[in-house]
From TrEMBL:
Coiled-coil segments: none
Protein name per its UniProtKB record: Flagellar biosynthesis repressor FlbT
Keywords: Bacterial flagellum biogenesis, Cell projection, Cilium, Flagellum, Repressor, RNA-binding
GO molecular function, a single term: mRNA 5'-UTR binding
Organism: Teichococcus rhizosphaerae
Keyword check for Repressor: yes
Length: 151
């Protein structure tokens, strides 16, 4: 197996086999054996799991880097969340991505599953952004006030 070298900045978080490591200064880390790890922006906090796709990501994250019990619960929760999302979406692509992500996770390829769910999150963000109503930059003026009003 080849080694993987990670460049981490001060304050970065790295989770290896369920153990969180925060770096106090800039570091270069070399992983010389197979490990379950995420770092930086790949790590989702519970507070950030605010949409259906993000909740799936968070569940798969637990299935990937959690302890044995957390991994089992994470995969079970991901199955339920994927089924719910697939039932609600009209996008065939999203259904395919979620099906593939779940299959990968069940084969213990959770890192690859997380990559697919990140694509679903991007799609979800675009759909939610397009669905937001246009908000005027300032409220309309009451009749008789503002531009063109005669005092």
């Amino acid at each position: 197996m080849s080694t993987l070298v990670l460049e981490l900045r001060q304050g970065d978080l790295l989770v290896v086999n369920g153990a969180p490591l925060r770096f106090r200064n800039r570091a270069r880390v070399e992983l010389t054996s197979r490990a379950r790890f995420l770092f930086g922006k790949q790590i989702m906090t519970p507070e950030a799991a605010t949409t259906p796709a993000r909740r799936i990501y968070f569940a798969l994250q637990a299935a990937y880097i959690g302890n044995d019990e957390e991994r089992e619960r994470g995969l079970e929760l991901a199955r339920d969340l994927v089924a719910e999302f697939q039932g609600a979406t009209t996008s065939g692509l999203v259904r395919e991505l979620l099906e593939s992500a779940l299959a990968l996770a069940q084969q213990d390829e959770c890192y690859q599953a997380l990559k697919l769910v990140r694509r679903v999150m991007q799609h979800e963000d675009a759909v939610l952004r397009d669905a937001e109503p246009a908000i005027p930059s300032r409220p309309p003026s009451p009749p008789g006030e503002g531009a063109g009003a005669v005092a």
